[in-house]
Amino acid sequence: MCATVGNNDTVHAAVVLAHPRADSYAHALAQRAVDGLQAAGHRVDVIDLYADGFRAAMSEAEREAYHGDQPILDPLVQTSADLVRIVDALIFIYPTWWSGLPAILKGWMERVMVPGVGFTFEERTGKVRPGLTNVRHLIGISTYGSPKSIVRVVNDNGRRTIMRALRLSCGFGVRTRWHGLYAIDTSTGGQRAEFAAHIERSMTDLR
Amino acid sequence: MTRRALVVYCHPSPTSFVASARDRVVAGLDFSGAEIRLTDLYGEGFRPELSADEHATHLDAGVDPSIASHAENLMWCDTLVLVYPTWWSGQPAMLKGWFDRVWASGVAWDLPEGANRLAPRLRNVRKVVAVTTHGSPKKINMVEGEGGKRTITRSLRAMCHPLCRTSWLALYNIDRCSESERLMFLDRVEQRLGR
Questions:
Q1: Which residues in chain B have their CB less than 8 angstroms from residue A147's CB?
Q2: How many CA atoms lie within 13 A of A73 on its CB side?
Q3: B128-151 residue pLDDT tens
Protein backbone atom coordinates (compact mmCIF):
# COMPACT_ATOMS: atom_id res chain seq x y z
CA MET A 1 0.00 0.00 0.00
CA CYS A 2 1.27 3.42 -0.92
CA ALA A 3 1.61 5.74 2.06
CA THR A 4 0.38 8.86 0.37
CA VAL A 5 -3.25 9.75 0.72
CA GLY A 6 -4.94 10.16 -2.60
CA ASN A 7 -8.52 11.19 -3.28
CA ASN A 8 -9.63 7.61 -3.59
CA ASP A 9 -8.39 6.75 -0.12
CA THR A 10 -9.80 9.78 1.62
CA VAL A 11 -12.77 9.08 3.83
CA HIS A 12 -15.32 11.74 4.71
CA ALA A 13 -16.58 11.03 8.21
CA ALA A 14 -19.31 12.48 10.37
CA VAL A 15 -18.85 12.20 14.13
CA VAL A 16 -22.12 12.42 16.05
CA LEU A 17 -21.40 13.20 19.70
CA ALA A 18 -23.94 13.07 22.52
CA HIS A 19 -22.79 14.10 25.99
CA PRO A 20 -24.06 17.08 28.01
CA ARG A 21 -20.67 18.07 29.44
CA ALA A 22 -17.92 19.60 27.34
CA ASP A 23 -15.33 18.27 29.82
CA SER A 24 -16.60 14.68 29.51
CA TYR A 25 -14.63 11.61 28.58
CA ALA A 26 -16.93 11.24 25.54
CA HIS A 27 -15.73 14.63 24.31
CA ALA A 28 -12.13 13.55 24.86
CA LEU A 29 -12.80 10.38 22.83
CA ALA A 30 -14.34 12.46 20.05
CA GLN A 31 -11.24 14.64 19.96
CA ARG A 32 -9.02 11.58 19.70
CA ALA A 33 -11.17 10.18 16.90
CA VAL A 34 -10.93 13.48 15.03
CA ASP A 35 -7.15 13.55 15.58
CA GLY A 36 -6.84 10.03 14.21
CA LEU A 37 -8.97 10.78 11.18
CA GLN A 38 -7.14 13.99 10.36
CA ALA A 39 -3.73 12.42 10.84
CA ALA A 40 -4.71 9.86 8.21
CA GLY A 41 -5.72 12.67 5.85
CA HIS A 42 -9.45 12.02 6.18
CA ARG A 43 -12.08 14.71 6.27
CA VAL A 44 -14.30 14.96 9.34
CA ASP A 45 -17.34 16.94 10.42
CA VAL A 46 -18.44 16.86 14.06
CA ILE A 47 -22.03 17.19 15.20
CA ASP A 48 -22.01 17.98 18.92
CA LEU A 49 -25.69 17.58 19.74
CA TYR A 50 -25.72 19.24 23.15
CA ALA A 51 -23.50 22.14 22.03
CA ASP A 52 -25.80 22.69 19.05
CA GLY A 53 -28.86 22.75 21.32
CA PHE A 54 -30.41 19.93 19.33
CA ARG A 55 -34.00 19.21 20.38
CA ALA A 56 -34.53 15.52 21.14
CA ALA A 57 -38.30 15.23 20.85
CA MET A 58 -40.00 15.02 17.48
CA SER A 59 -42.66 17.73 17.49
CA GLU A 60 -46.31 17.30 16.60
CA ALA A 61 -45.77 19.32 13.39
CA GLU A 62 -42.83 17.08 12.46
CA ARG A 63 -44.88 13.96 13.15
CA GLU A 64 -47.62 15.27 10.89
CA ALA A 65 -45.13 16.13 8.12
CA TYR A 66 -43.34 12.77 8.46
CA HIS A 67 -45.00 11.00 5.53
CA GLY A 68 -45.27 14.14 3.39
CA ASP A 69 -42.96 15.68 0.78
CA GLN A 70 -41.11 17.85 3.28
CA PRO A 71 -40.63 15.94 6.53
CA ILE A 72 -37.81 18.17 7.81
CA LEU A 73 -38.90 21.46 9.37
CA ASP A 74 -35.83 22.42 11.43
CA PRO A 75 -32.64 23.86 9.78
CA LEU A 76 -30.49 22.05 12.36
CA VAL A 77 -32.04 18.74 11.33
CA GLN A 78 -31.56 19.65 7.66
CA THR A 79 -27.83 20.24 8.23
CA SER A 80 -27.47 16.73 9.66
CA ALA A 81 -29.62 15.21 6.92
CA ASP A 82 -27.49 16.86 4.20
CA LEU A 83 -24.34 15.58 5.87
CA VAL A 84 -25.35 11.95 6.41
CA ARG A 85 -26.23 11.59 2.75
CA ILE A 86 -22.72 12.44 1.54
CA VAL A 87 -20.37 10.94 4.14
CA ASP A 88 -18.50 7.64 3.81
CA ALA A 89 -18.38 6.99 7.55
CA LEU A 90 -20.84 7.55 10.38
CA ILE A 91 -19.28 7.52 13.85
CA PHE A 92 -21.39 7.71 17.00
CA ILE A 93 -19.83 8.60 20.34
CA TYR A 94 -22.00 8.53 23.46
CA PRO A 95 -22.46 7.13 26.96
CA THR A 96 -24.89 4.19 27.18
CA TRP A 97 -27.78 5.02 29.52
CA TRP A 98 -30.42 2.42 30.39
CA SER A 99 -28.78 0.11 27.88
CA GLY A 100 -29.49 2.53 25.04
CA LEU A 101 -28.81 5.83 23.37
CA PRO A 102 -29.14 9.07 25.35
CA ALA A 103 -32.48 10.70 24.47
CA ILE A 104 -30.78 13.44 22.46
CA LEU A 105 -29.11 10.88 20.17
CA LYS A 106 -32.24 8.76 19.85
CA GLY A 107 -34.09 11.95 18.92
CA TRP A 108 -31.44 12.79 16.34
CA MET A 109 -32.11 9.43 14.66
CA GLU A 110 -35.86 9.95 14.75
CA ARG A 111 -35.77 13.48 13.36
CA VAL A 112 -32.89 13.16 10.85
CA MET A 113 -33.48 9.64 9.53
CA VAL A 114 -36.88 10.47 8.08
CA PRO A 115 -38.29 9.11 4.80
CA GLY A 116 -36.10 10.35 1.97
CA VAL A 117 -32.98 10.43 4.17
CA GLY A 118 -32.58 7.23 6.19
CA PHE A 119 -34.87 5.19 3.97
CA THR A 120 -37.51 5.45 1.31
CA PHE A 121 -40.89 3.82 1.07
CA GLU A 122 -41.42 2.19 -2.28
CA GLU A 123 -45.04 3.00 -3.10
CA ARG A 124 -45.60 0.12 -5.50
CA THR A 125 -44.35 -2.74 -3.33
CA GLY A 126 -44.75 -1.12 0.07
CA LYS A 127 -41.14 -2.04 0.84
CA VAL A 128 -38.65 0.05 2.77
CA ARG A 129 -35.40 0.78 0.92
CA PRO A 130 -32.13 1.92 2.51
CA GLY A 131 -31.33 5.60 2.11
CA LEU A 132 -27.75 5.70 3.35
CA THR A 133 -26.12 3.65 0.60
CA ASN A 134 -23.23 6.14 0.65
CA VAL A 135 -22.21 5.04 4.16
CA ARG A 136 -19.40 2.45 3.97
CA HIS A 137 -18.39 2.49 7.63
CA LEU A 138 -20.73 2.44 10.60
CA ILE A 139 -18.86 2.88 13.87
CA GLY A 140 -20.05 3.09 17.45
CA ILE A 141 -17.97 4.19 20.43
CA SER A 142 -19.67 3.99 23.80
CA THR A 143 -18.94 3.95 27.50
CA TYR A 144 -20.96 1.78 29.87
CA GLY A 145 -21.49 1.92 33.62
CA SER A 146 -22.06 -1.84 33.72
CA PRO A 147 -19.48 -4.57 33.19
CA LYS A 148 -19.62 -6.35 29.85
CA SER A 149 -21.34 -9.43 31.32
CA ILE A 150 -24.32 -7.32 32.41
CA VAL A 151 -24.39 -5.41 29.13
CA ARG A 152 -24.71 -8.76 27.34
CA VAL A 153 -27.59 -9.87 29.53
CA VAL A 154 -29.60 -6.69 28.98
CA ASN A 155 -29.04 -7.05 25.23
CA ASP A 156 -26.86 -3.97 24.60
CA ASN A 157 -29.84 -2.20 23.07
CA GLY A 158 -28.06 0.97 21.98
CA ARG A 159 -25.50 -1.03 20.04
CA ARG A 160 -28.30 -2.96 18.38
CA THR A 161 -30.14 0.22 17.49
CA ILE A 162 -27.10 1.40 15.56
CA MET A 163 -25.60 -1.88 14.37
CA ARG A 164 -28.88 -3.47 13.32
CA ALA A 165 -31.70 -0.95 12.92
CA LEU A 166 -29.59 1.81 11.41
CA ARG A 167 -27.43 -0.67 9.55
CA LEU A 168 -30.49 -1.77 7.59
CA SER A 169 -30.55 1.79 6.22
CA CYS A 170 -27.00 1.49 4.88
CA GLY A 171 -25.92 -0.47 1.82
CA PHE A 172 -25.07 -4.17 1.87
CA GLY A 173 -21.34 -3.51 1.84
CA VAL A 174 -21.25 -1.40 4.99
CA ARG A 175 -18.56 -2.37 7.47
CA THR A 176 -19.26 -2.04 11.16
CA ARG A 177 -17.05 -1.58 14.20
CA TRP A 178 -17.96 -1.35 17.85
CA HIS A 179 -15.72 0.02 20.57
CA GLY A 180 -17.01 -0.23 24.13
CA LEU A 181 -15.46 0.77 27.43
CA TYR A 182 -17.28 -1.14 30.17
CA ALA A 183 -17.60 -0.60 33.94
CA ILE A 184 -16.39 2.95 33.57
CA ASP A 185 -17.05 3.87 37.22
CA THR A 186 -14.45 1.37 38.38
CA SER A 187 -12.05 1.79 35.46
CA THR A 188 -8.59 3.22 36.03
CA GLY A 189 -7.12 6.30 34.39
CA GLY A 190 -4.74 3.99 32.59
CA GLN A 191 -7.59 1.94 31.11
CA ARG A 192 -9.35 5.08 29.89
CA ALA A 193 -6.15 6.44 28.36
CA GLU A 194 -5.50 3.12 26.62
CA PHE A 195 -9.06 3.02 25.25
CA ALA A 196 -8.71 6.61 23.94
CA ALA A 197 -5.42 5.73 22.27
CA HIS A 198 -7.05 2.65 20.75
CA ILE A 199 -9.84 4.82 19.30
CA GLU A 200 -7.33 7.20 17.72
CA ARG A 201 -5.32 4.32 16.20
CA SER A 202 -8.41 2.59 14.89
CA MET A 203 -9.42 5.69 12.91
CA THR A 204 -6.21 5.76 10.92
CA ASP A 205 -6.88 2.55 9.01
CA LEU A 206 -10.28 3.48 7.56
CA ARG A 207 -10.36 3.13 3.78
CA MET B 1 -55.48 -3.40 48.36
CA THR B 2 -56.13 -0.98 45.58
CA ARG B 3 -53.68 -1.19 42.75
CA ARG B 4 -51.70 1.96 42.12
CA ALA B 5 -51.06 2.44 38.42
CA LEU B 6 -48.80 5.01 36.80
CA VAL B 7 -49.49 5.41 33.08
CA VAL B 8 -46.75 7.18 31.13
CA TYR B 9 -48.03 8.15 27.73
CA CYS B 10 -45.80 9.44 24.94
CA HIS B 11 -46.97 10.59 21.53
CA PRO B 12 -46.74 14.04 19.91
CA SER B 13 -50.16 13.89 18.28
CA PRO B 14 -53.31 13.98 20.44
CA THR B 15 -55.29 12.23 17.68
CA SER B 16 -52.93 9.30 17.18
CA PHE B 17 -53.76 5.62 17.47
CA VAL B 18 -51.45 5.52 20.49
CA ALA B 19 -53.69 8.14 22.14
CA SER B 20 -56.63 5.77 21.62
CA ALA B 21 -54.59 2.98 23.18
CA ARG B 22 -53.90 5.24 26.19
CA ASP B 23 -57.64 5.82 26.62
CA ARG B 24 -58.27 2.08 26.56
CA VAL B 25 -55.46 1.50 29.07
CA VAL B 26 -57.09 3.99 31.42
CA ALA B 27 -60.53 2.45 30.85
CA GLY B 28 -59.19 -1.02 31.63
CA LEU B 29 -57.37 0.10 34.77
CA ASP B 30 -60.44 2.01 35.87
CA PHE B 31 -62.56 -1.11 35.46
CA SER B 32 -60.12 -3.08 37.60
CA GLY B 33 -60.57 -0.50 40.36
CA ALA B 34 -57.00 0.76 40.25
CA GLU B 35 -56.01 4.20 41.39
CA ILE B 36 -54.52 5.88 38.32
CA ARG B 37 -51.98 8.61 37.75
CA LEU B 38 -51.51 9.63 34.14
CA THR B 39 -48.41 11.35 32.79
CA ASP B 40 -48.58 12.91 29.32
CA LEU B 41 -44.97 13.71 28.48
CA TYR B 42 -45.67 15.77 25.36
CA GLY B 43 -48.72 17.38 26.96
CA GLU B 44 -46.71 18.77 29.84
CA GLY B 45 -43.70 19.71 27.70
CA PHE B 46 -41.30 17.35 29.47
CA ARG B 47 -37.65 18.09 28.62
CA PRO B 48 -36.04 14.79 27.59
CA GLU B 49 -32.40 15.92 27.42
CA LEU B 50 -30.42 15.14 30.57
CA SER B 51 -28.60 18.40 31.34
CA ALA B 52 -24.94 19.01 32.16
CA ASP B 53 -25.91 19.87 35.75
CA GLU B 54 -27.94 16.68 36.08
CA HIS B 55 -25.02 14.69 34.76
CA ALA B 56 -22.56 16.36 37.11
CA THR B 57 -24.71 15.29 40.09
CA HIS B 58 -26.00 11.99 38.72
CA LEU B 59 -24.47 9.93 41.53
CA ASP B 60 -26.16 12.08 44.19
CA ALA B 61 -29.61 11.00 45.33
CA GLY B 62 -32.64 12.71 43.82
CA VAL B 63 -33.83 14.35 40.63
CA ASP B 64 -34.01 17.90 39.35
CA PRO B 65 -36.67 19.72 41.48
CA SER B 66 -38.71 20.49 38.34
CA ILE B 67 -39.37 16.76 37.84
CA ALA B 68 -39.79 15.77 41.49
CA SER B 69 -43.42 14.74 40.90
CA HIS B 70 -42.27 12.24 38.25
CA ALA B 71 -39.92 10.58 40.73
CA GLU B 72 -42.61 10.59 43.39
CA ASN B 73 -45.09 8.89 41.04
CA LEU B 74 -42.53 6.25 40.09
CA MET B 75 -41.87 5.45 43.76
CA TRP B 76 -45.63 5.43 44.47
CA CYS B 77 -46.90 2.98 41.83
CA ASP B 78 -47.06 -0.81 41.90
CA THR B 79 -47.99 -1.03 38.23
CA LEU B 80 -46.17 0.95 35.57
CA VAL B 81 -47.76 1.18 32.12
CA LEU B 82 -45.77 2.70 29.25
CA VAL B 83 -47.79 3.68 26.17
CA TYR B 84 -45.77 4.79 23.14
CA PRO B 85 -44.98 4.19 19.46
CA THR B 86 -41.81 2.20 18.71
CA TRP B 87 -39.46 4.30 16.57
CA TRP B 88 -36.11 2.99 15.32
CA SER B 89 -36.67 -0.19 17.30
CA GLY B 90 -37.02 1.58 20.65
CA GLN B 91 -38.77 4.15 22.79
CA PRO B 92 -39.17 7.66 21.34
CA ALA B 93 -36.54 10.13 22.56
CA MET B 94 -39.16 11.79 24.75
CA LEU B 95 -39.78 8.58 26.70
CA LYS B 96 -36.10 7.61 26.70
CA GLY B 97 -35.41 10.99 28.27
CA TRP B 98 -37.93 10.19 30.99
CA PHE B 99 -35.87 7.06 31.76
CA ASP B 100 -32.60 9.00 31.59
CA ARG B 101 -33.77 11.76 33.96
CA VAL B 102 -36.38 10.24 36.30
CA TRP B 103 -34.86 6.77 36.88
CA ALA B 104 -32.14 8.45 38.88
CA SER B 105 -29.92 7.68 41.83
CA GLY B 106 -31.92 7.59 45.06
CA VAL B 107 -35.10 6.94 43.05
CA ALA B 108 -34.54 3.83 40.92
CA TRP B 109 -31.13 2.73 42.17
CA ASP B 110 -28.14 3.24 44.43
CA LEU B 111 -24.55 2.75 43.42
CA PRO B 112 -22.69 1.40 46.44
CA GLU B 113 -19.20 2.79 46.96
CA GLY B 114 -16.70 1.08 44.66
CA ALA B 115 -19.33 -0.99 42.87
CA ASN B 116 -20.18 -1.00 39.19
CA ARG B 117 -23.57 -2.67 39.47
CA LEU B 118 -26.66 -0.73 40.46
CA ALA B 119 -28.58 -1.75 43.55
CA PRO B 120 -32.31 -1.61 42.69
CA ARG B 121 -34.63 0.62 44.70
CA LEU B 122 -38.03 0.30 43.03
CA ARG B 123 -39.28 -2.64 45.07
CA ASN B 124 -42.73 -1.03 44.90
CA VAL B 125 -43.02 -1.81 41.18
CA ARG B 126 -44.44 -5.32 40.73
CA LYS B 127 -45.68 -5.07 37.19
CA VAL B 128 -44.47 -3.24 34.10
CA VAL B 129 -46.68 -3.19 31.02
CA ALA B 130 -45.64 -1.88 27.61
CA VAL B 131 -48.32 -0.93 25.10
CA THR B 132 -46.70 -0.06 21.80
CA THR B 133 -47.11 0.08 18.03
CA HIS B 134 -44.53 -0.81 15.39
CA GLY B 135 -44.44 0.41 11.79
CA SER B 136 -42.48 -2.66 10.74
CA PRO B 137 -43.46 -6.33 10.92
CA LYS B 138 -42.38 -8.52 13.82
CA LYS B 139 -39.65 -10.26 11.84
CA ILE B 140 -37.88 -6.97 11.13
CA ASN B 141 -38.01 -6.13 14.83
CA MET B 142 -36.48 -9.50 15.60
CA VAL B 143 -33.63 -8.81 13.17
CA GLU B 144 -33.16 -5.42 14.82
CA GLY B 145 -32.93 -7.15 18.21
CA GLU B 146 -36.17 -5.87 19.85
CA GLY B 147 -34.15 -3.20 21.63
CA GLY B 148 -37.19 -1.38 23.00
CA LYS B 149 -38.64 -4.55 24.48
CA ARG B 150 -35.37 -5.56 26.12
CA THR B 151 -34.80 -2.08 27.51
CA ILE B 152 -38.01 -2.52 29.50
CA THR B 153 -37.97 -6.23 30.29
CA ARG B 154 -34.31 -6.38 31.24
CA SER B 155 -32.72 -3.01 31.88
CA LEU B 156 -35.58 -1.21 33.66
CA ARG B 157 -37.08 -4.34 35.18
CA ALA B 158 -33.83 -5.02 37.02
CA MET B 159 -34.52 -1.93 39.17
CA CYS B 160 -37.99 -3.18 40.19
CA HIS B 161 -39.19 -5.81 42.65
CA PRO B 162 -37.36 -9.15 42.15
CA LEU B 163 -40.67 -10.83 41.26
CA CYS B 164 -41.82 -7.98 39.00
CA ARG B 165 -43.70 -9.26 35.96
CA THR B 166 -43.56 -7.67 32.55
CA SER B 167 -46.21 -7.68 29.90
CA TRP B 168 -45.66 -6.80 26.24
CA LEU B 169 -48.73 -5.68 24.29
CA ALA B 170 -47.56 -4.78 20.81
CA LEU B 171 -49.18 -4.16 17.48
CA TYR B 172 -46.76 -4.81 14.63
CA ASN B 173 -46.91 -3.61 11.03
CA ILE B 174 -49.44 -0.93 11.91
CA ASP B 175 -49.24 0.86 8.55
CA ARG B 176 -50.46 -2.21 6.74
CA CYS B 177 -52.91 -3.78 9.14
CA SER B 178 -56.64 -3.59 8.76
CA GLU B 179 -59.08 -1.48 10.73
CA SER B 180 -60.42 -4.58 12.45
CA GLU B 181 -56.93 -5.67 13.51
CA ARG B 182 -56.40 -2.28 15.07
CA LEU B 183 -59.72 -2.43 16.89
CA MET B 184 -58.97 -5.93 18.11
CA PHE B 185 -55.69 -4.70 19.50
CA LEU B 186 -57.42 -1.88 21.40
CA ASP B 187 -59.94 -4.37 22.82
CA ARG B 188 -57.12 -6.65 23.90
CA VAL B 189 -55.33 -3.75 25.61
CA GLU B 190 -58.42 -2.77 27.60
CA GLN B 191 -59.16 -6.36 28.52
CA ARG B 192 -55.62 -7.11 29.68
CA LEU B 193 -55.36 -3.95 31.77
CA GLY B 194 -58.79 -4.65 33.27
CA ARG B 195 -57.75 -7.93 34.79
A1: 116-117
A2: 13
A3: 999 999 998 998 888 888 999 999
